[in-house]
Amino acid sequence: MPFFFKEDSTVTVAGKVYKWRNKTTITLKERPCSYSCKKLTLSLDEQRLWRLPQNRNPLQLSWLLLSQLSPLPQPSLRKSRVLDDKILELEKALKNLSDKCVAERQGRIRAQQALRKELAQPTVENSELTSYPMAPIGVIKSCFSTRNGTPRQPLLVPLAKARLFFNLSRVPPASLEGLREYSHCWVIYVFHLNTDLEKLWKDPTKSKFKAKVRVPRLKGGKMGVFATRSPHRPCPIGLTVAKIEAVQGNLILLSGVDLVDGTPVLDIKPYLPYCDSIQGATVPNWLMDDNLLVVASVSFSKGFSSTLANCWEKAGKNSLYASPDEFQSLIKQVLSWDIRSVSQRNRPHDSLIKTENGEHLESAFDPDEFHDEEVSDHGSEQPSLSSGEVVYHLILEGLDVSYRIDFNGNVVVEKVSISNHLEQ
Questions:
Q1: What are the distances in angstroms from CA 192 to CA 235, 252, 263?
Q2: E strands in 198-263
Q3: 255, 242 in Cβ contact below 8 A?
Q4: DSSP letters for 84-131
Q5: Please, what's the b/e burial string for 184-220 (b: 16 or more CB within 10 A of its CB; e: otherwise)?
Q6: How far is residue 161's CA from residue 254's CA, in Å, rounded to a whole number?
Q7: Among 14, 56, 172, 238, which is least packed, fewest CB within 10 Å?
Q8: Helix (H/G/I), strand (E/B), else coil: 40
Q9: Read out DSSP for 325-362?
Q10: Between the CA of residue 69 and those of 20, 25, 40, 84, 336, what are the distances in Å?
Q11: How far is 348 from 346, CA to CA, in rounded Å?
């Protein structure tokens, strides 16, 4: 293989760099004949020719090359010292900058530790610092238009669907990567429809939060608020679990929800069966009766399906459900539980209030009957009605579902119409 050395080219021999000083070109040709025998030819100016016999040492060729090479000039000692000083100066500046960054980081850590310690030991002087600013990261678009009919616990109504829309300015879509691999998730939210939210802005000593609330399973009996899942709490924060049906862009499709439409969401976390499902967990005896709030049967009137089909032409455009039949199955699942409040079950004639324009509204009582307030007798002067004569209303996706329930717990769904909520 030929090698060409031209003017100003360099070559390294024995670890030293040399510069070709001859203006002519040397061509080094090597034609291997065998492993132990080589014939090497060195040509210079095509006039002088050296041949190396096969029995001579090929290293003689190196000396012939060295005779035409001269070492490159080395940098002066003064320039070398200047470069060394510059390198030392740069290394020193880099170290000072690194030390400064470490000191700043340690200072931030100490400040954060001091702030956490101060917040963990609230006093009268720093009471305003014990508030943590939080804002919703998303909002729920649920099939439950009002609190009335919203399940009291999650997963009781498997067909109850909702979409969780995230605020893109706070939650980038990449935050949801990997969530679809879980079957369920926890949702932390705010009880935004509580009738006593104004108490949160009052002085804690004047807010007068009730220590006990009424519990539906105790038929109006009272229990400490922290022994229940009442929405009326010193901090109205709720926790629920839902099934993840799909993750699409900036939204999650959930099922089995117990969330009312418009619920602000603070956070979501994946459900982990190995630590979230506790084997051997116990509950009080008053929670052991599973049939207390279950109705005997749910049936539909003859003309209900056709009426629903007519309403579906408008309501179905933005529905979470694919067909009127699936929506009717949702109604049946919701009404398979007695969604009436304790006061409605005990005094059914108080369940409806008639306004000046003739519209029927649900009672002003909390439908979950958790809030410990004295029950006002709106219908004390009305004649007593049997439970089967009272028409109750359930609003789902803006559709007003009318039904009756007798003393034996048999529910008859009579009709459905488009509510004012959907028309708006």
A1: 11, 20, 6
A2: 212-214, 222-224, 237-248, 251-255
A3: yes
A4: HHHHHHHHHHHHHHHHHHHHHHHHHHHHHHHHHHHHHS--STTGGGG-
A5: bbbbebbbbbbebeebeeeeeeeeeebeebbbbbeee
A6: 6
A7: 14
A8: strand
A9: HHHHHHHHHHHTB--S-HHHHH-GGGSEEE-TTS-EEE
A10: 5, 12, 19, 30, 102
A11: 6
Q: Which residues contact 248 (CB under 8 A, 6 or more apart)?
A: none
One digit per residue, pLDDT tens: the chain, 424 residues? 333 444 444 544 444 444 444 444 444 444 333 223 333 333 333 333 334 444 444 445 555 555 554 444 555 667 778 888 888 889 899 989 988 988 888 888 888 888 777 666 655 555 555 677 889 999 999 999 999 999 999 999 999 999 999 999 999 999 999 999 999 999 999 999 988 787 777 776 777 778 898 888 887 789 999 999 999 888 899 999 999 999 999 999 999 999 999 999 999 999 999 999 999 999 999 888 767 789 999 999 999 999 999 999 999 999 999 999 999 999 999 999 999 987 788 776 444 444 334 444 443 334 444 333 333 333 333 334 555 679 999 999 999 999 999 989 999 999 999 987 665 5
Q: Can you state the percent helix, strand and coil of the chain, rounding each to 5?
A: 30, 25, 45
User: How far apart are the C-alpha atoms of 359 and 370, rounded to whole Å?
Assistant: 26
Question: Which residues on adjacent β-strands are paired with residue 38?
Answer: 32
The single-letter DSSP state of residue 179 is: G
Q: What is the CA radius of gyration of the chain?
A: 42
Up-side HSE of residue 308: CA atoms within 13 Å toward CB?
22
Cα 336-337-339 angle, rounded to 5 deg: 125
Q: Domain 287-373+381-424: give its CATH architecture.
A: 2-Layer Sandwich (3.30)
CA dist 188 to 43, 270, 276, Å?
87, 11, 15
* Helix runs in 169-223, H state only: none
**Which residue shows structure tokens 């340690």?**
106
C-alpha to C-alpha distance for 163 and 321, rounded to whole angstroms: 12
Per-residue tokens: 82: 């200047």
Six-digit token pair at 83? 């470069």
Asked if 393 and 146 count as a contact pair (C-beta separation under 8 A), the reply is: no
